[in-house]
Design goal:
Distance between the termini of chain A: 37 Å
Number of strands of chain A: 11
Largest sheet of chain B: 6 strands, mixed
Shape of chain B: globular
Radius of gyration of chain A: 13 Å
Largest sheet of chain A: 7 strands, mixed
Oligomer: heterodimer
Structural class of chain B: mainly beta
Strand content of chain A: over 45%
Helix content of chain B: under 10%
Number of helices of chain B: 0
Order of helices and strands of chain A: EEEEEEEEEEE
Largest interface: A-B, 25 and 23 residues
Shape of chain A: globular
Structural class of chain A: mainly beta
Radius of gyration of chain B: 14 Å
Chain lengths: 110, 113
């Protein structure tokens, strides 16, 4: 079975902190994605990567950056966390069309 | 770019009844339409998908239909059970999307025993 793991299920940070969310997949997938999920807004794409060291902006990249140094790992970075970044963050990986999601990280920024 | 609209946003049914969730898409180039189910505390999981060369697909109690002319597709769940309660997302993708999916905003389905 494909497994996508995220480093934390729950995270509480303070405004202005630098936050790292880690995602690891074990199926050698080329593509990896970061979404945020908010009530009534569905899944919004932040960034995606289709290869090591490659990244593409999604619909809401402002305030975020990403890193993909190894094929299996895709990191989401909040350079200076703000309260409006409190959300559920979902990582996914895919080969061709089907995306496999991790369990999510619920981030609260105080 | 592609846009996917999903209705309704919430749906409540009695156990044993059928549930239907509808989505429309804007880009006629879209050719892959998956449906994801998200249970509480978990990430979304693919439950069924359909490609543009097929009009209908069934898997036990769930089915998806696609009308390319009208650009809409629907998820049908028959004989609903309490464990069907979840948030359902439709999505669309196209050739050369590099695995990108455009998601609808989701439907929260509640099945009452």
């Amino acid at each position: 079975d494909v497994k996508v793991t995220q480093s934390s299920r729950y995270l509480v940070k303070r405004t202005g902190e630098k936050v790292f969310l880690e995602c690891v997949q074990d199926m050698d997938h080329e593509n990896m994605f970061w979404y945020r999920q908010d009530p009534g807004l569905g899944l919004r794409l932040i960034y995606f990567s289709y290869d090591v060291k490659m990244k593409e902006k999604g619909d809401i990249p402002e305030g975020y950056s990403v890193s993909r140094e190894k094929k299996e790992r895709f990191s989401l970075i909040l350079e200076s966390a703000s309260t409006n970044q409190t959300s559920m963050y979902l990582c996914a990986s895919s080969w061709v069309n089907e995306q496999f999601f991790g369990p999510g990280t619920r981030l609260t920024v105080l | 770019g592609e846009n996917v609209e999903q209705h309704p946003s919430t749906l409540s049914v009695q156990e044993g009844d059928s549930a239907v969730i509808k989505c429309t898409y804007s880009d006629s180039a879209s050719n892959y339409f998956p449906w994801y189910k998200q249970e509480l505390g978990k990430g979304p999981q693919l439950i069924i998908d359909i490609r543009s060369n097929v009009g209908e697909k069934k898997d036990q109690r769930i089915a998806v239909t696609l009308n390319k002319t009208a650009k809409h597709f629907s998820l049908h769940i028959t004989e609903t059970q309490p464990e069907d309660s979840a948030v359902y997302f439709c999505a669309a993708s196209w050739e050369g999307s590099q695995g990108n999916l455009i998601f609808g905003k989701g439907t929260k389905l509640s099945v009452k025993p």
